[in-house]
Amino acid sequence: MSGQDPPQSPLQRKGSLGRTVRAVAWSLIGLRKGSEYQRDIEKLNPLHIIAVGLFAVFLLVIGLIALVKMVV
Predict the structure, then answer these.
(1) Residue 26 lies in a domain
(2) Membrane-spanning residues where (predicted)?
(3) Structure confidence by residue, pLDDT tens digits, 13-71
């Protein structure tokens, strides 16, 4: 054996919430290194990324609505 763990299915991966939030935040602003992207693909759960991404977009929309109401 080579000592490496067998690849996990995407839904069995356990990534930290902080790492998932950081990955989504960097992706939203478009600044992401290719090596970091590859590491996130290997470690993070896709369902967690989707959930955090939807929450981030929700916060963005609420923030824009609040900004427009303050300006008007």
Answers:
(1) yes
(2) 47-68
(3) 566 788 888 888 888 887 777 777 778 777 888 888 899 999 999 999 999 999 999 99
Helix ranges restricted to H, the chain = 17-29, 34-43, 46-71
Structure tokens at 72: 């008007």
User: What domain range is 44 assigned to?
Assistant: 16-71
DSSP code, position 4: P
From CA 43, how far away is CA 46, in angstroms rounded?
A: 9
Could you identify the residue written with the tokens 């763990």?
5
Which candidate, 30, 21, 16, places its Cα nearest to that of 53?
A: 21
Half-sphere CA count of 63, side-chain side, radius 13 A:
6
Dihedral-angle region of residue 5 (phi above 0 means left; psi in -120 to 50 means alpha; beta otherwise): beta
Q: Into how many domains does the chain fold?
A: 1
